[in-house]
C-alpha cells in the first residue's frame, strides 16, 4: 500500500512545477465536457425549428360543382389557405415546374402537388365509380437523413387536414339541409301535414293490399288453367294417336270392303247349297238306317258298327251347324241397332238352326241307343226303324223349311246388311281421318296456350310478391310516421339543429382526439439525448487520457522502488488516471445540470452515475493500454465505435440488425445510459442501482487483464513497441 501511495505522490511531484503538464491535465478535463455540451446543445429541440424547412406546395385543383345540391368545393384552395396559417414548415406556394426543379436542386426539401381532379375524385364516392384521391409528394432524400422524415410528417399532416376539411364540408352541407328541414317542421301546419300524410299512406296501403290480392287470385286461376290445358293437351294427343290407329284399321277394312262383300255374298249363296247338301245327306242316312237294321237281323255286330258310324256322321253335321250358329250370333252382337230388320232375320235364322241342332242331337242319341240295344231287341227292328226314320224326317223337314225361308227372305236381308256395313266403313274412314287432324291441331293449341298461361302465372306471382313487399314497406313507413309523431322526435331534431352547423360538422369530422399522456415525461430532445452524449463524452475522455498519459512506469521510476510488485505499479499509476476521470465526470455533469439545464429529477444520482461511469471506463482503457500498449489504444477506439452504433443511444435496439441486438447487453454504454435516464426522467424501483451494478461487473475482467494476463505478454508488448519505434514514424 505504501508503494502505491509513493507512486501516486511521485507522479504529483513530477507535474507540480510543470506548467505544460497542468495545461494538458486541464485540457484532458475540459475537452470531454465540450464534446458532450455541444452535441446536447445542437440537438436541444430540433423539431421546434422545422419551420425553417422549405416545402413547395402546388395547387392545381380545379374544384367541384354539385348538380343535386348547390355545392361548390375546392379542397385544394382550402388546404393552401390552412397551410398559409401553418408555421410548422416554410410552405412555399409555386407552380409545378418550379417545385420539381427546386426539389432536384435542393432549394426545397420536398414538394406537395394537389392534382387537377382532386376535388372531383374526392366527391366520386357519391357515384358508382369511386376514385381514390392522391396527393403527389416529392422528397429529396439526398440532402439530409432526417429532413425527409420530418417532411414526411408534414405531408401526413396535410393528408389528415384534407380528410378533416372534406368531411367537415360535406357534413356542413348536409346539416344545412337538415336545418332547413327543421325550420319547415317547426311551422304550425306541420302537425296537420303529418296527419294528412299518414292518412294518404294508409289509403295507399289498402289499395296495395287489394291489388296484391287480386293479382294473386288471377295468378292462381291462370295456374289452374295451365294445368287443365296440360291435361287436355295430353288427352288430345293420346286420342289423336288412338284415332290414327283406328283410322288406319278402318282404311285397311275399307280397302278390303269389295273383297269382303264378294266373300260374304258367296257365303250367303253357300248357305243354300249347304242346306241342299244336308238334306241329301239325311236322305242317304235314311236309306243307311234301313240297310243297317236289316243287316243287324243277320249280323248283329256289323249292324251295330253301321249305326255307330252313322251316329258319328250326324255328330259332325251337328258340329257344323253349331259353328255356323256361333258365327251368326257374333254378327248379331256386332250390329249397332238390335231393332233393325237385319237383326230380326238373324234372330229367326238362329231359332231355326237351334231347332235343327236339337233334332239332330236327338237323332244321334237314337242311333247310339239303337246300336247298343240291337243285341237284345232283334225282334224290335221294325220299331227302331220307324223311330229313327221319324227322327230323320223331322230333321229333313226343318232343313227344308230353312231352305225355303232362305230363298224367300234370308238371302235378301243378308245382302242388305252387307251394303249397310260397307257404307258404315266409308263413313268411319272419313270421320276418323278428320277427327285425327282435329285432335292434333287441338293438342298443339292446348300446349301453346298452356305455355302462355304458365308464363303469365309466373309474371303474376312475381308481381304479387312485389306488391306484398311494397305493402309491407308501406306499413313500416306508416308505423315510423306514427312513432315519430307520437315520440316528439321533431323536437329533439330541433334542439340538435339549434347549434351551429359548422360546429357540428367540425365535431363529426374529427370526433376523436388523441390525448397523449407521457410516462416519465422529458421536456425536450436535448435532455432525452443527454445520457447518450454524456456517456460518450466520458468514454472519449478516458480514451484521450490513456492516449496522452503513460500508463506504464518508466524503468527509472521502477529502480527507485525495491521489490515493486505488479499490482502496486498498476494501482499506483491508476490513482492519477482516476482523479482526472473524476474531474472529467464532475465537469460534464455540472455543465449538463447548471449550464445546459437539462431536465434531471435526481441530480445527485446523476452526478454519482457520471462518477462511477467515468471510473469504470478509465479502468477499462487503462487496463487495455497497460497490457497491450498501442494495440490496446486501438481496441479502445473500436469499442467506442461499436458502442455508438449498437448501444441504442439514438434508436431503439429492437430496430437494429440482429448482430447489434446480440451484443447489446455486453456493452458498458448501455448500462451507463440507463442509469442516467433513471435520473433524468424518473426512477423505477431499483433499476438505477441494478444498472450501476451491471456496469461495475466490467471492472472484474479488466482487473484480470491488467494484473494477471499482463505479465505473460509483457515481452511481446515491448518487442512490438521496439519495432514500431524503430520505424521513426510510429
Automatic annotation (TrEMBL):
Residues covered by the ABC-2 type transporter transmembrane domain:
24-171, 500-707
Gene3D superfamilies for this protein: abc type-2 transporter like domain
The protein's matches in InterPro entries, at most eight in alphabetical order, are given as: ABC2_TM, Phage_infect_YhgE_C, Phage_infect_YhgE_N, T7SS_ABC-Transporter
Where this protein primarily resides, as one coarse class?
A: membrane
Localization in the cell: Membrane
Q: What is the top-level taxon of the source organism?
A: Bacteria
Membrane-spanning parts: 20-38, 530-549, 570-595, 601-622, 634-653, 688-709
Which keywords does this chain's UniProt record carry? Coiled coil, Membrane, Transmembrane, Transmembrane helix
Task: Please provide, alphabetically and separated by semicolons, the GO molecular function terms listed in this UniProt record.
Answer: ABC-type transporter activity
Q: How does it sit in the membrane?
A: Multi-pass membrane protein
Q: Coiled-coil stretches, from where to where?
A: 460-487
- State the GO CC annotations: membrane
List the protein's name: Putative membrane protein
Its lineage reads: Bacteria, Bacillati, Bacillota, Clostridia, Eubacteriales
Amino acid at each position: 500500500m505504501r508503494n502505491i501511495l509513493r507512486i501516486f505522490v511521485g507522479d504529483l511531484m513530477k507535474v507540480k512545477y510543470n506548467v505544460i503538464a497542468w495545461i494538458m491535465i486541464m485540457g484532458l478535463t475540459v475537452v470531454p465536457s465540450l464534446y458532450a455540451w455541444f452535441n446536447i446543445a445542437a440537438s436541444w429541440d430540433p423539431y421546434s425549428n422545422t419551420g425553417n424547412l422549405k416545402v413547395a406546395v402546388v395547387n392545381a385543383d380545379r374544384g367541384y360543382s354539385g348538380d343535386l345540391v348547390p355545392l361548390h368545393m375546392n379542397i385544394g384552395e382550402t388546404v393552401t389557405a390552412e397551410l398559409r396559417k401553418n408555421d410548422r414548415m416554410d410552405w412555399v406556394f409555386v407552380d409545378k415546374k418550379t417545385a420539381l426543379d427546386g426539389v432536384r436542386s435542393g432549394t426545397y426539401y420536398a414538394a406537395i402537388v394537389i392534382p387537377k381532379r382532386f376535388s372531383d375524385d374526392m366527391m366520386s364516392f357519391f357515384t358508382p365509380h369511386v376514385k381514390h384521391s392522391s396527393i403527389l409528394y416529392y422528397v429529396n432524400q439526398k440532402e439530409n437523413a432526417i429532413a425527409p422524415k420530418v417532411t414526411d410528417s408534414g405531408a401526413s399532416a396535410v393528408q389528415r387536414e384534407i380528410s378533416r376539411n372534406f368531411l367537415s364540408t360535406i357534413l356542413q352541407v348536409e346539416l344545412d339541409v337538415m336545418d332547413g328541414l327543421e325550420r319547415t317542421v317547426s311551422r304550425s301546419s306541420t302537425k296537420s301535414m303529418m296527419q294528412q300524410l299518414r292518412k294518404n299512406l294508409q289509403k295507399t296501403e289498402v289499395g296495395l293490399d287489394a291489388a296484391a290480392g287480386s293479382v294473386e287470385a288471377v295468378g292462381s286461376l291462370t295456374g289452374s288453367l295451365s294445368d287443365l290445358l296440360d291435361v287436355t293437351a295430353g288427352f288430345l294427343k293420346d286420342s289423336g294417336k288412338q284415332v290414327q290407329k283406328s283410322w288406319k284399321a278402318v282404311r285397311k277394312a275399307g280397302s278390303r270392303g269389295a273383297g269382303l262383300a264378294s266373300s260374304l255374298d258367296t257365303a250367303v249363296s253357300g248357305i243354300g247349297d249347304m242346306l241342299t247338301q244336308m238334306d241329301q245327306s239325311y236322305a242317304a242316312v235314311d236309306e243307311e238306317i234301313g240297310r243297317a237294321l236289316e243287316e243287324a237281323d243277320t249280323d248283329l255286330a256289323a249292324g251295330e258298327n253301321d249305326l255307330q258310324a252313322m251316329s258319328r256322321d250326324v255328330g259332325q253335321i251337328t258340329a257344323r251347324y253349331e259353328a255356323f250358329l256361333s258365327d251368326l250370333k257374333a254378327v248379331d252382337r256386332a250390329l249397332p241397332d238390335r231393332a233393325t230388320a237385319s237383326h230380326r232375320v238373324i234372330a229367326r235364322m238362329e231359332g231355326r238352326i237351334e231347332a235343327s241342332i236339337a233334332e239332330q242331337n236327338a237323332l244321334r242319341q237314337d242311333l247310339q241307343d239303337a246300336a247298343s240295344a240291337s243285341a237284345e231287341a232283334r225282334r224290335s227292328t221294325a220299331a227302331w226303324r220307324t223311330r229313327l226314320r221319324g227322327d230323320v224326317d223331322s230333321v229333313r223337314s226343318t232343313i227344308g223349311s230353312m231352305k225355303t225361308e232362305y230363298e224367300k227372305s234370308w238371302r235378301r236381308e243378308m245382302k242388305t246388311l252387307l251394303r249397310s256395313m260397307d257404307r258404315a266403313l266409308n263413313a268411319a274412314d272419313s270421320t276418323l281421318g278428320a277427327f285425327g287432324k282435329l285432335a292434333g291441331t287441338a293438342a298443339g293449341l292446348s300446349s301453346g296456350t298452356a305455355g302462355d298461361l304458365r308464363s303469365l302465372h309466373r309474371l303474376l306471382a312475381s308481381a304479387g310478391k312485389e306488391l306484398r313487399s311494397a305493402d309491407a314497406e308501406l306499413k313500416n313507413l306508416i308505423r315510423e310516421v306514427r312513432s315519430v309523431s307520437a315520440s316528439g322526435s321533431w323536437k329533439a331534431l330541433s334542439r340538435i339543429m339549434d347549434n351551429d352547423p359548422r360546429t357540428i360538422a367540425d365535431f363529426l369530422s374529427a370526433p376523436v382526439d388523441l390525448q397523449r399522456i407521457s410516462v416519465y415525461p422529458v421536456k425536450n430532445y436535448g435532455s432525452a439525448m443527454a445520457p447518450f452524449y454524456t456517456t460518450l463524452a466520458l468514454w472519449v475522455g478516458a480514451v484521450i487520457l490513456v492516449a496522452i498519459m503513460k500508463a506504464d512506469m518508466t524503468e527509472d521510476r521502477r529502480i527507485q522502488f525495491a521489490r515493486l510488485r505488479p499490482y502496486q505499479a498498476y494501482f499506483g499509476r491508476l490513482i492519477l488516471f482516476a482523479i482526472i476521470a473524476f474531474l472529467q465526470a464532475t465537469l460534464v455533469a455540472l455543465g449538463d445540470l447548471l449550464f445546459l439545464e437539462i431536465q434531471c429529477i435526481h441530480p445527485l444520482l446523476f452526478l454519482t452515475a457520471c462518477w462511477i461511469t467515468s471510473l469504470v471506463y478509465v479502468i477499462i482503457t487503462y487496463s487495455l493500454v497497460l497490457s497491450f500498449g498501442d494495440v490496446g489504444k486501438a481496441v479502445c477506439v473500436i469499442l467506442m465505435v461499436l458502442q455508438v452504433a449498437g448501444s441504442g443511444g439514438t434508436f431503439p435496439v429492437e430496430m437494429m440488425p440482429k448482430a447489434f441486438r446480440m451484443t447489446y447487453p455486453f456493452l458498458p454504454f448501455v448500462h451507463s445510459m440507463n442509469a442516467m435516464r433513471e435520473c433524468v426522467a424518473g426512477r423505477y424501483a431499483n433499476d438505477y442501482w441494478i444498472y450501476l451494478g451491471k456496469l461495475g461487473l466490467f471492472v472484474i475482467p479488466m482487473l484480470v487483464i491488467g494484473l494477471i494476463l499482463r505479465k505473460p505478454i509483457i515481452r511481446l508488448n515491448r518487442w512490438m513497441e521496439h519495432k514500431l519505434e524503430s520505424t521513426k514514424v510510429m
